[in-house]
Amino acid sequence: MDAPPQISRLAVRIESALKEDLNRPWCVHRMYEELFSTPDLPSRDDQLVVTQRAAEELVARGQAHREAISADSIGVHCEDTLYWSVETNKLRLADFGPEYEWPTVLQRLGSHIQCRGL
């Protein structure tokens, strides 16, 4: 039987963070800001992609759940994906309670859009 592919160091850090905070899912932006942000990559968008790929490693291995959300706020489209450990025994984002149910979660998503200036 083949050994499973090597998990990235960032995915290991993400898995640890998900297990430490079982009561709240982590969005990609939170993971990026708290676990990854590095000057090695040229742009924030590139770093967000790397962060999401590492989180997706956990989903592919059955070590995390995820749910994508999307909202429009003041004419700006914002989307994010939230991840949580399988140890929570929660299958859907709404299982985390009212603040993660629709439309509250969409309002919260729209509120974390950061203006980068015009």
Question: Could you walk me through the main structural features you see in this protein, from its secondary elements to its overall organization?
Answer:
The protein is α+β, with helices and mostly antiparallel strands and 118 residues long. It contains 4 helices and 3 strands, in the order H-E-H-H-E-E-H. The protein has a 3-stranded antiparallel beta sheet, with helices on both faces. Strand 2 and strand 3 (76-85) form a beta hairpin. The relative contact order is 0.17. The mean pLDDT is 82.
Brief summary of the model shown:
It is built from four helices and three strands; from the N terminus they run αβααββα.
- Specify the CATH class: Mainly Alpha
Judging by the overall fold, what is the CATH architecture? Answer: Orthogonal Bundle
Q: What is the topology, as strand order, of the major beta sheet?
A: 1-3-2
Could you list the spans in which at least 5 consecutive residues all have pLDDT below 50?
none
Radius of gyration: 15 Å
Structural class: alpha+beta
**CATH topology descriptor:** Arc Repressor Mutant, subunit A
> What's the pLDDT, averaged over the residues?
82
- Portion in beta strands: 15-25%
Helix count from the secondary structure assignment: 4
H-E string: HEHHEEH
| N- to C-terminal distance | 55 Å
The amount of helix comes to 25-40%
Question: How would you sum up the major sheet?
Answer: 3 strands, antiparallel
